[in-house]
Amino acid sequence: MNDPRPPYLRIVADIERRIADGELRPGDPIPTTRAIMREWGVAMATATKALAALKQVGAIESAPRVGAVVAPRRLPSRSAGGLERDRIVRAALEIADADGLAALSMRAVAAKLGVATMTLHRQLEAKAELTQLIADAAFAEISYPEPPPGWRSHLRVAAQLQWAAYQRHPWLPRLVSITRPVTLPGLLAYGLWTLRALDGLDLDPGTRMHIYATMVNYVRGTAVNIESEVGAELDTGMTSRQWSAARLSVDGPLIAQVAEPGTELDLESLFTFGLERLLDGLTMVITPRQVRR
């Protein structure tokens, strides 16, 4: 069966697999443009695009006098003292989902698994690596549909997929970095799927990266409120809309000064409205380039 992905994405997937499997380790040189051309039988433009995509999602970086190398983000081992990595991650994920990141620790995970804390410390770099693992696992849960036609529809779906991940895991936005992305499979998959929306739009690498980062940052920035809203709903027993309706009886005259009666606003409506306005703004960046072609 033929792989439906564009050639450059097949190259990206293969190199990312080599990194994940340990064939290519942090600091190792990445195949050059010409090496990729020979191995895959592609044009220089395709090889260059593949390397640019890997750099955009943080999988590789440029090293002086060496060229492109695997970024210094250590992929965790697949086992820890006889424990399957997936068991460790699943236990940590369940703790974070139930009680938040504040409750997550190596000791808590070890207790949940019924092992000594030192068993985990031998393989994992304490909580810092553990949080990277659960963030990656949360993104790995995403099931990607066939990309819809048009860059706007594609980016909208990408934003909705990210938003849904944050709703499943309210702690997740705090672990997503825009300027220091972690090179792990689940996060890479999201980045590559999203960047496909910009293929063929005659955008320079810098503009592509800023569009992607702006989209991710908008969704993340809105989603940081989910965790506090969940807590507020538990404390009050009311959704934000129910709480607003209840406040009308107390602050009705004051609220009427800034909003029409019956106006409703919650995180979902705020996310949807803001997303469409962001896409409107990106039209001003993308459409002129399409017209010039």
Automatic annotation (TrEMBL):
Alphabetized GO MF terms: DNA binding; DNA-binding transcription factor activity
DNA-binding region per UniProt: 105-124
Keyword rRNA-binding attached: no
Keywords on record: DNA-binding, Transcription, Transcription regulation
GO annotation, biological process: negative regulation of DNA-templated transcription
Domain HTH tetR-type: 82-142
HTH gntR-type domain ranges (all copies): 5-73
PANTHER family: GNTR-FAMILY TRANSCRIPTIONAL REGULATOR, MANNOSYL-D-GLYCERATE TRANSPORT/METABOLISM SYSTEM REPRESSOR MNGR-RELATED
The protein, known as: Transcriptional regulator, TetR family
Organism placement in taxonomy: Bacteria, Bacillati, Actinomycetota, Actinomycetes, Streptosporangiales
